[in-house]
Amino acid sequence: MDLSLIIKLVVAALMIGSVYSALGMSYSLIYKASGLMNLAMGNFLMLGAYVGLTFYSILGLNIGLSFVLTFIVMFIFGIIVQRYLIDSLLKKGAAFSYIILLTAALGLAMENSAILIWTPYTLYFPAIFNTASVEIAGAHVAPENLLVLGIAVFSCVGLFIFLNKTKFGTAMRASAQDQVAAGALGINVGLTKDVTWGLASSLAGVIGMALGPVYGVYSTMGAMIAQKAFAGSVTGGYGNIIGAVVGGVFYGFLETFVSAFITTTYKDVISFTVLIIILVISPTGLFKEKVIE
Question: If we measure between CA atoms, which residue out of 66, 26, 63 comes closest to residue 42?
Fold first, then answer.
């Protein structure tokens, strides 16, 4: 078998797998912080792509600054959603099921708003790199794919370090485990929830911007990606950060090699069939994550 083909497939699998992992971490963050599922996560990714396109293509800023500004904008957007939508309903005693439905409605609103603001057509980033491909052991790989891989890996590692090696990250994890006890110890639970939603939103948004040069930017670009990321998160153990990473990479390799050697038509069917089998065998995922009641 051609070594260059294997290298291309591995890079492609790592790229899309790391995207699923990063978005899966966003799902897990919100679930651990509040016990909620954000059904608009794919739309957060889409919004980040449009915001990044606006900074880089329309305003003409350099790519690095565009990523930073996209992170900031999406962080603020996540806080707004948490504070003025999610938390407002929780304070009024709304059941979790209604809040989950709210996130679904928010996703539809974001999708249609994107069409009104940026048109319904696919938009494309101007060229970021001066070369069309990078040679790796004889295989030619698009530099945009490597950019996505780098951004996703950096985001995942950075988030893991933040959660486990900083005082505020420790406070966030403590608040997620027991909000009453965390509050009694002087932890600002409201702030930790705001930051959690902000980080989840900015992580999705930055990944969306990184994907823009690869796939183009359009209103439904996050739909299938979010489903696969959710599948990866559930497979690893919903709410488990490491599980989200492992599950995301697993589905990245699964769909890439299924597409290459079996079929592209039914790759999604095969991926979700595998998810069903895993859930039947182990409902709490590979890492046996406990369900938040």
Answer: 26
